[in-house]
Amino acid sequence: MIRPVLRTRKGTRPETALFVHGTMDHSATFQRVAAHLPRWTVAGYDRRGWGTSRALADSQTKLADHVTDLISAASRLPRPVVAGHSYGALVALTAAAQQPQFARAVVLFEPPVCWLPWWPDTAPWEQLVEDASAQGPAAAARALQEAVVGHPTPGHTDEELLTFAYGVDGCGFQSRWVAARNPVTRAG
Asked: What gap in Å lies between CA 18 and CA 82, rounded to an integer?
């Protein structure tokens, strides 16, 4: 299986940080954080479906694929501190649960932990997606993107937004949209 390209900036100290980005994002997001670690080796990669790894994802890409990619990336580094944001945090958390020794430490920022009892039955973003879903997955992705950014973001085609819809599977953007449109899926 083809894996995302791991980009690394060598530091002068033995510490290593590996960053895992969230949805609708890419590895370059962590450049400002990496700037605060000038002597650390820092690494990152674009998850399947995003940035330079867009072509590695399809409608069958699952959380398990992202976890396998992260464990593979971490195995090429000297026991990194793994920092994940949003969906990337969910990837890091799942990897740590499967293989606790893959990282020296795991830092999670805004993980979508929908299985915890305090998580609302329908989170605001899920309601937003559900309301826009009648117009298709690209419309739902566009509505979510506009809510996060605060205004319409020009330059994203429906195809790019569909990549977003197929790239999320942690708490169910794609699966919720499919279930709402497909009675067979909903019944299963």
From this structure: 5
